[in-house]
Each structure stands twice: as structure tokens, then as C-alpha cells.
Amino acid sequence: RLLRDAGIGFMFAPRFHPAMRHAGPVRREIGIRTVFNVLGPLTNPAGARHQVLGVATPTLAEKLALALGRMDIDHALVVHGAGGLDELSLSGPSLVYDVRPGQPPQRMVVDAAQLGLQPAPNEALRGGNAATNAAITKGVLTGAEQGPRRDVVLLNAAAALVAADAAPDLHTGIEQARASIDGGYAYERLQRMVNLSNFSE
Questions:
Q1: Does residue 93 contact residue 110 with C-beta atoms inside 8 Å?
Q2: Domains of the chain, CATH where assigned
Q3: What is the mean pLDDT of residues 114-120?
Q4: Model pTM?
Q5: Would you call 145 helix, strand, or coil by DSSP?
Q6: Does residue 182 have a pLDDT over 80?
Q7: Count of C-beta atoms within a 10 Å radius of residue 142
Q8: Which residue has the higher pLDDT, 74 or 39?
Q9: Which among 50, 125, 155, 181 has the fewest CB atoms less than 10 Å away?
Q10: For 104, phi and psi rounded to 5 degrees?
């Protein structure tokens, strides 16, 4: 309903992914990376045909990109950020595999500085508890928050726009994301999701 009426939503994986619900406790108990670290991201319960999939290691990024290329998708980006992030990073080069059906994944290295964004350490993005994170999100989407947090949102939103075939490249995607925030559209969409979520409860 949220996706239909607000165009944005959040799915808590254990609730919507019954088969993987039992994998989490086992994975935590084992304490090392297992096949579950690969299966979880690949078995998206939403059946997303366009997606950005973040992973914590470069090796896993390549493997998941190859696997995604054999699945029923339209366009995906598999990303790994500097410092072990499972998203595009401001702190250094990010590894990106551009995945389209019937083609080998295209490997790219993305440098945020070359896209006009200010480099920043990962520590500059650190959040806190739920209230703190909500305030940060509101600050970024209302334009009150400038700096690394806004920039990392622009960068990763650009990746989503490229994967959705709504932007031809990351540079254009950044400009589109910036216009969405500065025009109030991103925050309005978030508010719509919040209002619908509260109503649903």
C-alpha cells in the first residue's frame, strides 16, 4: 500500500521474508560469513526488478553481480564503499557493478570528489538512537542539514535513480536528487509515507 500510495516504503525483512527469518539467528550464532549472507540479498521478497544492492566486501560484490545478472531483473547496481560500507562512500573510492540482463556486469570505480561532492570520513555520517536518526533524516530532507550527511544521501539516491533508469548516470542522478530535496519533494514523500503508516496502525 505504501509503495502504491506514497511511492516509497520499508519492508522489515524477517516479517516479509519468512524463509530467511530463521537464518538470522543461525548466522549470528556462527559468527562468520555464510551462504546466508548471499542468499538474503538475492532473494528479495518484493521481487524488485530495479535495485541497488550494497555489500560489505569487494569479493562478494562481484559474486552477487554475476548472480544477479542471471536473474529476472531489469537493472541493478551492486555497490561496495570505502571502509567496508555497504553503500557508496564519501571517504574513498566505491566499487560499483552495473548489472543488466544478458550482459556481463560492468565494473566501475566511483570517486565522490569527481562527482562534485566533498570527501568525508565515514565517522562524519555516524548517527545515534532512533530519535537522533529521525532528526538527521528530517534535517537532510528539509535542507537544514548540509555537509557529509546530505552528500552521502545525494550520492546513494543517484545510484537508485540510475538503477531505476530514471537517470543516465550518477552525475545527473545527483542533480536530480538535489532538486528533489531543495524543492521539498523528498520530504513531502517521506511525510506521506509516515502519515500512511500511522493511519495503517
A1: yes
A2: 2-200 (3.40.1030.10)
A3: 97
A4: 0.87
A5: coil
A6: yes
A7: 13
A8: 74
A9: 50
A10: -65, 145
| Nearest C-alpha neighbor of 54 from the set 112, 11, 95, 22 | 95
Name the amino acid, one letter, at 165. Answer: D
25 CB burial (10 A radius; 0-12, 13-18, 19+): exposed
Which phi and psi angles does 79 have, rounded to 5°? -125, 150
The strand ranges marked E within 37-111 are: 50-54, 75-80, 94-99, 106-110
Angle between helices 185-200 and 130-142 (to 10 degrees): 140
Task: Report the pLDDT value the prediction gives residue 27, as an integer from 0 to 100.
Answer: 56
Specify the pLDDT at position 201: 45
Round the CA-based radius of gyration of the chain to a whole number and report it: 17
Cell matching residue 107: 565494473
Tell me what the mean pLDDT of segment 36-41 comes to.
Answer: 62
In angstroms, rounded to a whole number, what is the distance separating the alpha carbons of residues 159 and 13? 22
Edge-to-edge order in the sheet of strand 50-54: 50-54, 75-80, 94-99, 106-110
For residue 17, what pLDDT is reported?
A: 67
Residue 103, by phi and psi: left (phi above 0), alpha (psi -120 to 50) or beta? beta
pLDDT of residue 18: 63
Residue 4, all three cell numbers: 502504491
First to last CA, the chain: 13
